[in-house]
Write a structure and sequence with these properties.
The complex is a heterodimer. Chain A is built from 14 helices and no strands. By secondary structure, chain A is an all-alpha fold. In chain B, helix 4 packs parallel to helix 8 and helix 6 packs across helix 12. The chains are: A mainly alpha, B mainly alpha. At the A-B interface, helix 1, helix 4, helix 5, helix 6 and helix 7 of A face helix 1, helix 2, helix 5, helix 6 and helix 8 of B.
């Protein structure tokens, strides 16, 4: 009897505590959103309105004019498409190479499998600054060698390849962890049937890899879209810049016209925000597969 | 006929045909070639170049320097110590403030407190934003005519007090901005791990009268040991890698120097100096420890 009373009391206390915790986290969630909401608010108001009446004034007009202007004056569309010209092939190649490696290291027991995995995973974690200078030189030399300086340097291809080279380790790691959960019997029957290595990969393994491929493609598209370092060091021409590095420049150019810049920043954020909200499940499972292994 | 067919089958199972060997070498060779030539060979080249004098133009100009670059870094570059200190602040802040907050947040969200689904998304939103965008967004908050300036009573563009240039507060400001993103990232990584903790363990602890805090400390944290290691390693690596946000906020002015930026300003552009390579190697040496820890944790079973 007294045990039940005690239990009830305890539960009530826990309920109060939980309500307190929840409102505390909720309060901070609002704080968390303020910077984005503020930027959004700024982007909806005309510049003159703020200058004349102050930032907190009640706006006379709220419209999307800043977006239209940003779109026109900042070439946002061009930069956005540059981002996708880099991100889509980079993600595709990363996943393709990653699936090849994951297939080989989990289905065939070569002695070097583990070393290969270690090499690729470690490479993925290296500081990019360690790689930058010789890679830059290499890009120029290869360009001079084939008689076209811009084949790798200041070209989409060069940026795509370094993304692939760095990220393939992570993709391999995630897919090989996933492959370990697929029973070996499936592969054995393929081998007994005399399927070639290619058929084994293409017809048996690749269809099974759909879940990690979906998760990784979402995760990596946002990573590469958001990537900044390679975009600033390997791209020189302004019209080839992805949106992230272009924003760095636009920030300097439109420094006083912050309503326009706000609109530009919101437009640049939209693709990843949309990807996140539409494909949240894939997003989360991509991180799960990578962080906890199996 | 049937006998020979079985024979071929068994042989195929044991050994590879020529075509298979070709396929396998392509499968392994192409990605490995790319990875070696794009990542490891340049990395090793940087290590080599850190022992030379070179302006980065003609190969024939490379001159052996021995440890001269390192000597300059350690004895004649006060910025190096500032950068080291800033990286250390970053690491300490992330380790003792941002990462634990992310972990606690994950724990509460996992307990399904009221509103946990909304919270999960809200706290994660900054993580999908590029640091370039984050830099701009926070300038709107803290820069001239920004929300914070208005709240501080300096609404006009001219009255704004400098925040990023104020050395007594800018470290905290920068680290808070970085945490805005880091906390959500850690939360989601940890949430993923928490899903695998046996719920009955926690229930048993609660029935035995353990408080929420005791349950977390004694049941959840130990069960999450491998994830904890990964989270700590990610925190260390992120702290060493810091670059984007500083570049957006300060450009190459090294107004708030960190190692990643010192590499960049010394090695980028026309006036390259292999001092930058020496900085890169120092950054690398500092990264080796967390990288090895990471590899040991995630490949534990395979290494055995």
């Amino acid at each position: 009897m007294s045990g039940i009373v005690k239990d009830k009391k305890y539960r009530n206390r826990q309920k109060i505590k939980d309500a307190f915790i929840s409102s505390f986290i909720g309060l901070f969630a609002i704080v968390w959103m303020v910077p984005i909401l503020w930027t959004f608010w700024t982007s909806l108001r005309p510049y003159d309105d703020i200058i004349q009446k102050g930032v907190f004034s009640r706006p006379d007009t709220l419209n999307l004019k800043n977006y239209a202007d940003a779109y026109r004056l900042m070439n946002i569309w061009e930069y956005l498409s540059n981002s996708f010209i880099v991100a889509i092939p980079a993600v595709f190649l990363t996943l393709f190479f990653g699936s090849l490696l994951a297939f080989v290291v989990t289905r065939y027991s070569f002695k070097f499998n583990l070393y290969l995995l270690l090499l690729f995973t470690a490479g993925n974690l290296l500081p990019v600054q360690l790689v930058y200078a010789p890679l830059f030189k290499m890009y120029i030399w290869v360009g001079d060698l084939v008689g076209n300086r811009n084949i790798l340097y200041d070209s989409y291809l060069g940026v795509i390849l370094i993304h692939v080279a760095l990220q393939v380790g992570f993709a391999t790691f995630v897919m090989s962890s996933y492959m370990k959960t697929i029973p070996k019997e499936i592969s054995e029957s393929a081998m007994v049937d005399g399927a070639s290595v290619f058929r084994h990969y293409w017809n048996v393994i690749l269809p099974l890899l759909r879940p990690p491929l979906a998760a990784l493609s979402v995760l990596m598209t946002t990573w590469i879209y958001n990537e900044f370092f390679w975009a600033i060091v390997l791209i020189k021409s302004d019209n080839k810049r992805p949106i992230t590095s272009a924003l760095g420049r636009l920030q300097g150019e439109f420094v006083t016209d912050f309503n326009l810049l706000a609109a530009g920043a919101i437009m640049a954020a939209l693709p990843t925000l949309i990807i996140f909200f539409v494909l949240k499940r894939q997003f989360v499972s991509g991180l799960t597969l990578g962080s906890t292994k199996g | 006929m049937s006998q020979s067919a079985t024979k071929i089958r068994t042989r195929r199972r044991r050994a590879f045909t020529r075509k298979d060997i070709f396929t396998l070498s392509l499968f392994l060779g192409v990605p490995t070639f790319l990875h070696l030539f794009w990542v490891w060979i340049p990395a090793l080249a940087t290590i080599g170049l850190s022992f030379t004098y070179w302006n980065g133009v003609h190969l024939s100009d490379i001159k052996w320097a021995g440890l001269a670059n390192y000597n300059t870094v350690f004895t004649a570059s006060p910025q190096f110590y500032d950068a080291l200190l800033n990286n250390a602040y970053w690491l300490l802040w992330f380790t003792f403030i941002a990462t634990p907050l992310g972990v606690l947040l994950a724990y509460q969200v996992d307990r399904a407190i009221r509103g946990h689904k909304v919270y999960e998304s809200v706290y994660y939103i900054p993580v999908v934003l590029s640091l370039a965008i984050i830099g701009i967004i926070w300038r709107f908050m803290l820069g001239p005519a920004g929300l914070v300036q208005v709240l501080l009573g300096n609404p006009g563009i001219e009255d704004a007090i400098p925040i990023f240039g104020n050395y007594s507060i800018n470290t905290y400001v920068i680290l808070s901005i970085a945490s805005w993103r880091h906390i959500g990232y850690i939360m989601l990584l940890y949430l993923a791990g928490l899903k695998s903790v046996d719920a009955s363990l926690r229930e048993a602890a609660v029935i035995d009268g353990a408080t929420e805090w005791q349950t977390f400390r004694k049941i959840v944290l130990p069960a999450m040991a491998p994830v904890n290691t990964i989270i700590i390693v990610i925190t260390v690596i992120e702290s060493l890698r810091a670059f984007d946000l500083i570049y957006i906020l300060y450009g190459t002015s090294t107004g708030w120097p960190i190692l990643g930026m010192l590499v960049f300003v010394n090695i980028y552009g026309q006036a390259a100096s292999m001092l930058g390579a020496a900085y890169a190697v120092i950054l690398f040496l500092l990264s080796i420890i967390p990288i090895v820890f990471y590899l040991r944790t995630v490949f534990k079973e395979d290494i055995k």
